[in-house]
């Protein structure tokens, strides 16, 4: 209560954040009751003025969309015309984001710089890289850090390799990444929690490292991630200029496997812009190269996203399933079951196209088809706030729950392979 009072006073007395351009934006939950209403929403999602945070195919799971003030009347009129039920879950996203920004910055300043990571606030990119380097110094026999590439704005993309001290580069491997979409802050936080558990809680989790090395890239899109901290909190893409007006590519539509066929936009300003060519972005090329170096070794690829409580697997470009889908499903179901047993949270499990939406050019499809990683899973973490904006006090419970599922999936992979 005391912290909220401080934040309220700060809101009245300080200049507004440059990162907050969402004053007056509304966030809607829309409950489509049948296939016709789902189709209406699908058509609305083609309008780039509407930012659909979530558009599941499953009846009973609401869609969520952010609408700027100038479009709200028309949007509500359209829904009313078709008799589609909706509710406004946030009538001023800008105010919410400002409170969360102040709270996060307050906690960061209070905690200061430490060699230990905190899960009470969201970390900036520089602090994430520093944490990886600190671990490599503190645990040189079990941890190594390598820069696998540079972002467009010349930031080091650092991947950490975690072993039990017996690595020979021939052990099997699990590859994890997060933060390919800039605004999904909980994904890098979850990646950091995996690192924390495997390194700083090694004794408890040593069984996960006996036969496997873990390679983790916490932030695939560092430029976009920093941009969400400094300029636009809901920015999704990379930051490389595309033309005179538009910046960035959706990294999870930029991989060269059925690139651009479905669920990706050719409009350069669109949030789901596929890029001018496959692998047009230095960030996706760096991740691709990392995958390919692990081909044959890596048995699971896990990419962390938010939001929505999903465990998804190939394909993203078609509703058909890969030949070995049952193997992937078994692993994903192990994660969902472990989470449900521990916390009661329910994760939907299935192929991306059949459970959520079609989206070609994704990293999981590429990992499975081209890097030959037999288990490829996208984990969509829980929603916080309006979706992509968990409050700092939600970080710890979210990443702890996520770890329960990831550990169960890893144990299933170790058992199978």
TrEMBL record:
Superkingdom field: Eukaryota
GO terms of molecular function: metallocarboxypeptidase activity; zinc ion binding
Peptidase M14 domain segment(s): 121-413
Keyword line: Carboxypeptidase, Disulfide bond, Hydrolase, Metal-binding, Metalloprotease, Protease, Signal, Zinc
Signal peptide from the UniProt entry: 1-19
UniProt similarity note: Belongs to the peptidase M14 family.
Pfam name, any one: Peptidase_M14
Signal is among the record's keywords: yes
Organism: Glossina austeni (Savannah tsetse fly)
Residues at the active site: 380
Name of this protein: Peptidase M14 domain-containing protein
Entry keyword annotation includes Hydrolase: yes
PROSITE patterns per UniProt: CARBOXYPEPT_ZN_1 (PS00132), PEPTIDASE_M14 (PS52035)
């Amino acid at each position: 209560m005391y912290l909220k009072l401080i934040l309220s006073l700060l809101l009245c007395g300080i200049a507004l954040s440059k990162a907050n351009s969402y004053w007056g934006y509304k966030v809607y939950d829309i409950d489509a009751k049948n296939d016709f209403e789902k189709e209406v929403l699908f058509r609305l999602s083609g309008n780039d003025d509407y930012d659909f945070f979530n558009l599941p195919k499953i009846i009973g799971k609401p869609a969520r969309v952010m609408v700027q003030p100038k479009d709200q009347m028309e949007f509500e009129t359209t829904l009313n015309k078709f008799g589609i039920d909706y509710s406004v879950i946030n009538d001023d996203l800008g105010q919410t984001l400002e409170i969360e920004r102040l709270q996060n910055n307050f906690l960061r300043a209070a905690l200061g710089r430490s060699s230990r990571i905190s899960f009470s606030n969201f970390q900036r990119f520089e602090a994430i890289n520093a944490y990886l380097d600190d671990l490599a110094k503190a645990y040189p026999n079990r941890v190594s850090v390598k820069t696998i590439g540079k972002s467009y704005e010349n930031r080091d993309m650092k991947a950490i390799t975690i072993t039990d001290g017996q690595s020979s580069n021939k052990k099997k491997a699990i590859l994890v990444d997060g933060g390919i979409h800039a605004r999904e802050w909980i994904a890098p936080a979850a990646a950091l929690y995996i690192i924390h558990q495997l390194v700083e809680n090694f004794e408890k989790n040593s069984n996960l490292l006996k036969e496997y090395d873990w390679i983790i890239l916490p932030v695939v899109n560092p430029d976009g991630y920093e941009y969400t901290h400094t300029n636009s909190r809901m920015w999704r893409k990379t930051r490389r200029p595309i033309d005179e007006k538009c910046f960035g590519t959706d990294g999870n539509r930029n991989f060269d496997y059925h690139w651009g066929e479905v669920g990706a936009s050719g409009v350069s300003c669109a949030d789901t812009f596929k890029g001018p060519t496959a692998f047009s972005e230095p960030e996706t090329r760096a991740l691709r190269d990392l995958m390919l170096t692990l081909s044959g070794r890596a048995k699971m690829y896990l990419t962390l996203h938010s939001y929505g409580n999903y465990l998804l697997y190939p394909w993203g470009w078609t509703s058909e399933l890969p030949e070995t889908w049952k193997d992937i499903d078994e692993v994903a179901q192990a994660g969902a079951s472990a989470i449900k047993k521990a916390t009661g949270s329910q994760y939907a499990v299935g192929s991306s196209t059949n459970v959520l939406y079609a989206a070609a050019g994704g990293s999981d499809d590429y990992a499975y088809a081209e890097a030959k990683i037999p288990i490829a899973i996208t984990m969509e973490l829980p929603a916080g706030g309006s979706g992509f904006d968990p409050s700092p006090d939600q970080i710890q419970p979210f990443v702890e729950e996520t770890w329960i599922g990831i550990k169960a999936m890893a144990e299933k992979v170790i058992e199978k392979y």
